Amino acid sequence: MWCESFNGSPYASYNYTDLSFKIIFNNDTTDYIKIPLMSLMRNSETSTTPRCNILVLEMIPNQQQQYYITLGTAFFQSFFTQFYYDKQNSNNTMVLALSKSALNTTYLGNK
Question: What residues make up the domain containing 8?
Answer without folding.
Answer: 3-109
